[in-house]
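Working notes for the structural subgroup meeting. M.R. asked for a predicted model of this chain before we commit to crystallization trials. I am recording the input and output together here so anyone reviewing the notebook later can reproduce the run.

Input as submitted:
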Amino acid sequence: MKRLMLALVVVSLVLSAGCKSALTRKDPRKYEGLDRRLDAFTYIEEGKLVAFAVNTQAARYREAEAYIPLAVGIANKGTATIRLDRESFVLQDEAGKQYPMATYSEINEHYQRVQSDNEFTSFYEIWAAKWPLYARSRSAFFPVRSAETVQDFVELPPFFAFADYLYFPKPEGGVVGHRFELHAKAQGLPDPVFVKFIVD
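Returned structure, recorded in token form:
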């Protein structure tokens, strides 16, 4: 009886180790080639001049919508003032197809979840905690309340950061489980920057 029990324990341990090993081998590949994560939903590409982050928390629940929300943060780590406008941001899917940022009128007329996107996210707190000594630049590409003034650009002097929700047409291949790149071309930066992420 003791030998049988010992054999069962050994088999159980071997199977458990095998499953754990398989999971360990499988999970990292899901995130291979993506940028570093600040939390479960936030990916960051941090260079010498700027840091660029994308949060997918709301996008996970908007598969049925015509537009997807991405919480975006950029921090100027000390370079000259940079300027980002609506044309600065482009979403690229796995097939290489690019989607320019939606217009304010498109979102205002065809998307009803801007307020809930902004209310039910942890990104703003995470981004503020990442740059506690940085000043904040106001951004309102898609203001939550109609009384707010729509902004078509944001400027970031040295050691300033901004965070805002940006909206893009839903990629043809879908959203959840897919990889993307968000590109930003800013006046004042020598080269575009981009962050690689997955919506999961």
